[in-house]
Design goal:
single chain, 265 residues, alpha/beta, Rossmann fold, 10 helices, 7 strands, 51% helix
């Protein structure tokens, strides 16, 4: 997609790129003729995805094995970004198991904060600090519909995703004058390995499950148009109904009832 490449350059970085949505973002960028810096802790899965992209699209891939919950890895990531002249940052990495709040250990609670919130805010800060003011750039943060209402069984995850959404929304307005596009993609249920591993119960009132490729492509196509994007017509309709027609208390009860049914809680 020439317009996208002309605006953001030849390189894009995907944090959390080995599988699922991260692999889908990498695929869309490669299909649009961009080179990709893939960052993930799982080197085997990342290598498999990267090899497929290189073979299918002939794109150049830089693979960086890094634990994105560790702040000391930021310098190496930023160095690679600067060396490649990368002006597009996609932060997809997240930790989000489905379980009761008290089932989390203290270490896990820190992991939610480090991976889902602390790393993106520091990485984005450094990314913007080093970005030439005369060049357009883009930042896409993966948030979640779970961050828009307090939802049982994903309490720490939802709280960190609310942080990500507010981070993107504020930056969208603050950096428009610098020609920097910032957006949070608030996805609903997406057919990723992580989502399937939660074993959600199928029912008529459950969410529509979207493909990772659909979510990634729609999100990238909407970058620069708005601070928040929700992929999928049914997700958009649900968001409209729950925020415009119903009270927050009713909407929150409905979301929590749906969650309880999905996981028989």
């Amino acid at each position: 997609m020439h317009k996208f490449r002309n605006r953001y350059g030849r390189w894009g970085l995907v944090a959390g790129a080995a599988e699922g949505l991260g692999a889908a973002f990498s695929e869309v960028l490669a299909r649009w003729g961009m080179n990709v810096i893939m960052v993930d802790v799982d080197i085997e899965k990342m290598q498999k995805t990267a090899s497929w992209l290189e073979e299918k699209f002939g794109t150049e891939i830089v693979k960086m094995q890094a634990d994105l919950s560790k702040m000391e890895n930021i310098d190496a990531i930023i160095e690679t970004i600067n060396n490649k002249g990368c002006r597009l940052l996609i932060y997809n990495a997240a930790y989000g198991p489905v379980k009761g709040f008290m089932e989390n250990t203290s270490e896990e609670l820190n992991y939610y904060l480090d991976l889902n919130s602390r790393m993106p805010v520091h990485l984005i800060h450094q990314f913007l600090k080093d970005m030439p003011v005369d060049q357009a750039s883009g930042i896409l943060l993966m948030s979640s519909l779970a961050g828009l209402w307090g939802t049982q069984l994903v309490v720490p995850y939802g709280a960190t995703k609310a942080f990500d959404f507010n981070l993107a929304e504020g930056l969208y307005y603050e950096f428009k004058h610098r020609d920097t596009d910032v957006m949070a993609c608030c996805a609903g249920a997406t057919d990723t390995p992580n989502y399937r591993s939660t074993n959600p119960r199928k029912n008529l009132l459950g969410p529509t499950v979207l493909s990772p490729r659909y979510v990634a492509e729609k999100a990238l196509r909407n970058l620069g148009r708005r601070p928040l994007y929700i992929p999928g017509f049914m997700n958009q309709l649900t968001y409209f109904l729950l925020t415009r027609l119903f009270s927050r208390s009713f909407s929150t009860r409905l979301m929590n009832r749906t969650m309880a049914r999905m996981y028989e809680y």
